[in-house]
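Hi,

I'm pasting everything inline rather than attaching a file, because the server keeps stripping attachments. The sequence lines come first, and each chain or strand is labelled.
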Amino acid sequence: MTSFDPGQLVQRAQVHRDIYLDPTVFALEMERLWARSWLFVGHDSQVPEVGDYITTVLGGQNVLMLRRTDGSIGVLHNRCAHKGAPLCSDAAGHAGRTLRCPYHGWSYRLDGTLLGVPMRESYEGSGFEQCQAPQGLSPYGAVATHRGFVFARASEVGPPFADAMGDVLGAIDLLADRSPEGRLRVAGGVLRTLVHANWKIYLENVNDAFHPVTTHASVTQSAQAVWGERPEGEPKPAAMQQLLPFGSGYEFFDRMGARLLPHGHSILGTQKSLHSAYDALGGYAQALAAAHGAERAQAVLGFAPQNVVAYPSIALKGVPQVMRVLRPLAADRTIVEAWAFEPVGAPRELLAAGLLYNRQVFSPLSMVAHDDLHLFEGIQRALAARGNPWVSLHRGADADAPAPREVSGIDEALLRHQYRAWAALMADEVAA
Amino acid sequence: MTPHDVTREMLVDFVVHEAQLLDEGRYSEWNALFNDDGWYWLPAAPHYDDPLHQASHLYDDKLLRTVRLARLQSPRAHSQQPPGRSHHLLQTPAVLVMAPQDNRFELRTPFIYTELRSGRTTQLPGVARHHLTLGAHGLRIRLKRVDLLHADTALPAIEFYL
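And the predicted assembly:
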């Protein structure tokens, strides 16, 4: 294994441009950081029946997530043990009781073990039984599920799921308990944006509450001007309730508060967020209190973070019930997915609000994201310039202490925190 | 003029004119082509039929269209520095519904849309469906639905109405 010193590129309060630009660093990120992390795979509501599957990509690896015969969820490399053909090509589907390769007809049980090879007798004496193929489909790695959220880690080394995820699991609980039945369902379809920038530029921005004042001035000023012409007292439609708060000032973002969690995770907006002032739905709070008890219902409804980052693959909210998933493709290309959840047993307006938010803020045609994406893609090009090779993350760095700890919503500690995890996960050896 | 006076030629001319207004950046004239309760819809998959409970890339009423168009012309729209441009190449629109008795007209127009922004060219084929009605000031859009061939794939940022 080649030796790599992350400290050369990630210092206490600045990072080197090569972490965004260099294809060899990207390849090493896939091999180390993404393989060593518990990555979000999918949600079990996408595969309700035995034999249901989805195909997806985890840190550059094509995988199948499927419901096995015993009801559990498996994550397998989507590669036939024979010649490498993908077992399934659709984004989602139903395989029945077995997976069958469309190329030469090898078949597998839903746990990936080899079931049948046509004309198997002709393999006799070939050494076939001693090679890897008869072991069937390769598992991606360890799989863990929490409240329907399926995560997997390729690497055998590293902390167990519950330790690695820590308080992120509590945030998932608060999101799932938006349903009176405590269950979420992926619904409405996913929006995907191809961003011509490094995944870390995107993920930093998820934790960057300093940028809206300048970056999003075009949309917030336009929304304020257009809404300002309406007669006073006109009820504010949900679309405006979602857009107008983006015009908040530095003081608001400073006071939204944030919590840095171990392993690069974080909660931005522990005190308040752009989502705090949405209209309540009639009867919903009462239904939640009846289902979960008054205290828990209050905690659930009061949890309205800007973003919960489960490093490095997802960013969740509590309200609206949406999530972004990062799929890095190359050093300069990332797919960002925007998912919506329907809290089972809750008013359908909640799903509608999530889908409204996704199309207003995360769609490739979003008038909020346009300025973000323009800047990310510009950064990706501009960083290649000769001259200063460093990116500054110094704001508030004199007070850094280990996580968990509370910080201001606009402290660049939220970004340095991600790079501390980056350096730990990119080292030659990873802590158990 | 009554809906019975609407001709196929008027319908086709309307759709061609609508694309021209977009490509020439005549946004307030363009927005005025919609009914007050008219919608522009770009669903996230070709088979979607419920804009509230299925994902859309865009689903704009008059208020949101007005905000979006104001933003495009805002001096603080970073992504419009330099200003982008759009180009619609339309196939001759086909009139699918000609129902003057209900004041309802519908056209289907395959197109190739090209957008130039920040030095990058994005080209997207698709089909536009115009649901039109005759109002006091001429034909107006009740719904413009745009189905992109690539609707359910990862799309780059697209800045203008297609």
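Chain B touches chain A at residues 42, 44-45, 48, 52-59, 61, 63-64, 66-68, 70-71, 74, 76-79, 118, 152-159 (CB under 8 Å).

If the labels don't parse on your end, tell me and I'll reformat.
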